[in-house]
Amino acid sequence: MRVFVTGGTGTIGSPVLAELLGNGHTVLALARSEASATALSDAGAEVLRGTLSDLDALRDGVRRTDGVIHLAFGHEAATPDALAREIVTETDALATMGHELSGSDRPIVVASGTPWVVGRASTEADPPPTEGPVGGRGRAVLALLDLASQGVRSVAVRIPRTAHDDGNGGFAGVLATTARRTGVAGYPGDGTQRWPAVHARDAAVLFRLALESAPAGTSWHAVDEEGVAVRDIAAVIGRRLGLPVQPVPTAEFGPYGEIFMLDQPASSRHTRDVLGWRTTHPGLLEDLENLCP
């Protein structure tokens, strides 16, 4: 299959490219900079220059390929307004690509986030949040999944709060970045809240499986560990960086602070049973031992 990929140089995007190319697919990858274009080309992908807001480039990418994996998102947004703008950009991009795929029965696999449910681990059957800081993303993904009735094999792969590789990536990566900036390995609240996690290279396998075989309108969980206590994450970061570990105000974590406070374990039992997905890479706390001081 020839696959159009957005976000192909990110923590998850890079292993997704390797997974696709290593399993007989070819890749046309969107690149917003010369550096990204070089990295994608070196990885073995054909490059399409453009950004997520360049809707003509997205249409071109869809027309030239057999399916789409969408991973691009501005997770570096530092303020609520910046996050809201990123969500609007992604919403328009998904609507554009979905419309271009209409009636073709071609797949589009979109990266989403695991939902949270009070009192239990969320499952693949739970809907994404449609209110709050990332509610716009949930609404955009639901709209894409609804295109299953219009001849689009639309699929969501939900990524846990931390998709990690060599100690980098996801919410744990934000904790580490904030620690370096502030001189404190901080965590919000009492730190007992749990975040699900997955190694990025394990997540990449699930994106390929979903592209190849997941039914239209379905959601899947790329979750290895159902929940790791945030205080334990901060403790490893503090030890690796030589910094004190202590609670800090949620404002230290920008627009994601409200989400950081939530206890949000997630299950992947259905995903493993149906798609045969298996994880083989280190868990989060072990992988954080690779964090550079």
Automatic annotation (TrEMBL):
Gene3D superfamilies: NAD(P)-binding Rossmann-like Domain. It comes from the Bacteria. Coiled coil: none annotated. GO terms for molecular function: aldehyde dehydrogenase (NAD+) activity. Pfam families: Epimerase. InterPro entries: Epimerase_deHydtase (IPR001509), NAD(P)-bd_dom_sf (IPR036291), NAD(P)-dependent_oxidoreduct (IPR051783). GO terms for cellular component: cytoplasm. Residues 3-215 form the NAD-dependent epimerase/dehydratase domain. CDD domains: SDR_a7 (cd05262). PANTHER family: NAD(P)-BINDING DOMAIN-CONTAINING PROTEIN-RELATED, PROTEIN YEEZ. This is SDR family oxidoreductase. It comes from Mycolicibacterium hodleri.
